[in-house]
Amino acid sequence: MEIIPLTWLDKINSSRKTVVVLAVLALFSGIGTYTVFARSGAAGPNPDIVLGFMYLNLGLLIVIGLLVSKRLVKLWFQRRQGLAGSQLHTRMVVLFSVVAVIPTIVVALFSVFLFDFGIRSWFTERIGAAVDASQAVAEAYLEEHRQNISGDALAMAFDLNRQAPFLMSRPKQLAKFIQAQAAIRNLTEAVIFETSGKVLAKTGLSLTFDFEPFPESAFRKARNGEVATLTSEVDRVRAIIRLIISLMPTYLSPDL
Q1: What is the rounded CA–CA span in Å between residue 230 and residue 71?
Q2: Could you give the CA distance from residue 156 to residue 182 in angstroms, rounded to a whole number?
Q3: Element (H, E) at 255
Q4: Which entry of 105, 122, 141, 256 is 20 to 30 Å from 167 by CA?
């Protein structure tokens, strides 16, 4: 049986020296791949450089695989023709092939692992940064609303206290007054109530007040003449301030 000619494979120098050189190149390529990821910084590795190393590792693996395959094929044909020197020669060739291929395979797998790990880290950092930025925006949004509603509560309390002699004896006028105040300040709702829970006036949308009472700490702060603000899980911002419009302790609660 004739040995099948390996046309384009024969153009490659399949000596042991060539395979060893390629294996060393594969090792250095793996080190280069690791260096690219290790020194990429917060911005992440350059995609073009990473792809370049991946293609280089894959190319080295293919070339070494072809060279080793060529030697194994030739050895197989020689054994079929009885030309092989001995089993020792066969074992040496197989051992050399394995030793030459294993480092390249390890480097290729290592490169794939680094690429996957780098991509995961890159996305994790950016997702974390996006979450932190979103949280910062939400906190700034709530803080701005707290300041706005505190100013609205003080302004409404001032107007109510000034108009108290006229409004307290006219419940309908008080209701219209608070509705107008809420509309001017773009408030979701506003309520005037006593400590006992009696509602003196409220806007038309004030339907949830009875179900969301204020904590004692908010009342204590309001009794001291301060504006107490509270937030809910649905980003609802409320305030409470004490009024001086009647003998009974009376409070105003605007809501954004």
Answers
A1: 79
A2: 9
A3: strand 250-255
A4: 256
Beta bridge partners of 193: 199, 251
d(CA 167, CA 49): 76
User: CB within 8 A of 36, min separation 6: which ones?
Assistant: 45, 46, 49, 50, 53
Class for the domain spanning 168-255: alpha beta
| Residue, of 43 and 222, whose pLDDT is higher | 222
Query: CA dist 62 to 56, 66, 77, Å?
Result: 10, 6, 22
pLDDT at 196: 78
Q: Report the amino acid identity of residue 59.
A: G
Does the pLDDT at position 7 exceed 50? no
Backbone angles phi, psi at 84, to 5 degrees: -70, 140
- How far apart are the C-alpha atoms of 194 and 71, rounded to whole Å? 97
Cα–Cα distance for residue pair 89/31, rounded to 1 Å: 33
Only one residue has tokens 């490659």, namely 12
Give the span between the Cα atoms of 152 and 254, in whole angstroms.
8
Handedness of CA 85, 88, 94, 95 (dihedral sign): negative
Q: Provide the token pair at 113.
A: 């692992």
Q: Which of 75, 68, 74 is nearest to 101 (CA)?
A: 68
Task: Give the global pTM.
Answer: 0.47
Select from 211, 29, 237 the least CA-distant residue to 148.
237
- Per-residue pLDDT of 37-71, as tens digits, reads 666 655 556 667 767 777 777 777 777 777 777 77
